[in-house]
C-alpha cells in the first residue's frame, strides 16, 4: 500500500497544466513505497512520477530539490525534479507538498551481478566526487548523535547480551569517531538495492533521496557495502565487495583515516539499521498497515562484521582487475585486498 492520498484523473490533468510535460493519458498508483503517495503518470510527451509527501520533515523538501537538481545537472543518474512554467519545482496538490519527476527506467536488482555492482560503485564514486562541492546543508538524521540518543529506547526490548553489545558498540564509535573529520559532502543516506533501478546491467536511476543529507561520505559507502555485498549469512560477498569498491575508488580514493575507520563504519551503519528497524517495530510503529523490515538482518550483519573484519583496507589497484564469472567485464579497476 503506497497511495495514502488518492488522486482523480481530473486533479492530475489540471495539475499538469502547470508544467510543459504534455497532457495526461494515464494515472496509476504505485503499490510499493512506504512513506509517500507515489503515482506513475503517462502523458503524450513521456512518463513521470508524481509524489505527494505524507510525512517527514517538509521543511527539508527544498534541500532535496536542490540536491537532485545539482546531481542531475552533473549528469548523475538521478531524477531531477521537473520545474513548472515559472521555474518552481515544489508544488502543492490535494493539500500535500508535491513533486513531479521523470520516470527512470528499470527495476530493482535483488541479486546484483558484478557489472551491476560496478555500475553502482562508479555512480556513487562520481556522486561523492561532485557532492563535496554541493553547498546545501542538512544534518545527517541517522548519525552517531542519533544512535546515541535513540538506542536507549530499544534496550528494554533486547536480550541482556544484545543490550550490552549495543551499548559497547556505541561507546566504541564515540571513541573512534570523536574529534575526527572525515571527507564530507551530500550523501544519499539509504542507498539500498531497492533505491536503484537497472535495465539489464545499466544503472537507470538512483531514487528516494529522502534520507539525503550532508555528512561523511564513508557512511554512504558503508551502507552500500552492507546491503549490496553481504551474503545470506551476513558475510561479505568478496566479489561484489571488490566490484563496488574498485569502481568507487577509481573516482574517490579513501584517505588514511577513512581506511583505518572503515571496519568501524561498516559496524556503525549496520547498527544504524538494526536500531531504526527496532524503533519502527517497538517505538514508532507506522499508522498504516505495512510489513516492517527485519531488524535481525542487521543484528546478524553487525555480528559478522565484528567476527570477520572485511578483507582489505580499501585502496585502488594500479591495474584494472576484472571480475571473474559469466558477467560482462567492466573496465573499472577493482580494489586490492592488501
Ligand atoms: N523517478 C522514479 N522513476 C521510476 N520509478 C520510481 C521513481 N520514483 C519512485 N519510483 C517507484 O516508486 C516506488 C516508491 O517510491 P519511493 O520514493 O521509494 O517511495 P517511499 O518513499 O514511499 O518508499 C519505488 O520503489 C519505485 O518503484
Ligand atoms: N532502507 C531502510 C528504511 C529507511 O530507513 P529509515 O531510518 O529512514 O527508517 C531499511 O531497509 O530499513
TrEMBL record:
<dbReference type="GO" id="GO:0016301">
    <property type="term" value="F:kinase activity"/>
</dbReference>
<protein>
    <recommendedName>
        <fullName>Homoserine kinase</fullName>
        <ecNumber>2.7.1.39</ecNumber>
    </recommendedName>
</protein>
<dbReference type="InterPro" id="IPR050249">
    <property type="entry name" value="Pseudomonas-type_ThrB"/>
</dbReference>
<comment type="pathway">
    <text>Amino-acid biosynthesis; L-threonine biosynthesis; L-threonine from L-aspartate: step 4/5.</text>
</comment>
<keyword id="KW-0067">ATP-binding</keyword>
<keyword id="KW-0808">Transferase</keyword>
<keyword id="KW-0418">Kinase</keyword>
<keyword id="KW-0028">Amino-acid biosynthesis</keyword>
<dbReference type="InterPro" id="IPR005280">
    <property type="entry name" value="Homoserine_kinase_II"/>
</dbReference>
<keyword id="KW-0547">Nucleotide-binding</keyword>
<feature type="compositionally biased region" description="Pro residues">
    <location>
        <begin position="311"/>
        <end position="323"/>
    </location>
</feature>
<dbReference type="InterPro" id="IPR011009">
    <property type="entry name" value="Kinase-like_dom_sf"/>
</dbReference>
<dbReference type="InterPro" id="IPR002575">
    <property type="entry name" value="Aminoglycoside_PTrfase"/>
</dbReference>
<feature type="domain" description="Aminoglycoside phosphotransferase">
    <location>
        <begin position="26"/>
        <end position="253"/>
    </location>
</feature>
<comment type="similarity">
    <text>Belongs to the pseudomonas-type ThrB family.</text>
</comment>
<feature type="region of interest" description="Disordered">
    <location>
        <begin position="307"/>
        <end position="338"/>
    </location>
</feature>
<keyword id="KW-0791">Threonine biosynthesis</keyword>
<feature type="compositionally biased region" description="Polar residues">
    <location>
        <begin position="327"/>
        <end position="338"/>
    </location>
</feature>
<dbReference type="Pfam" id="PF01636">
    <property type="entry name" value="APH"/>
</dbReference>
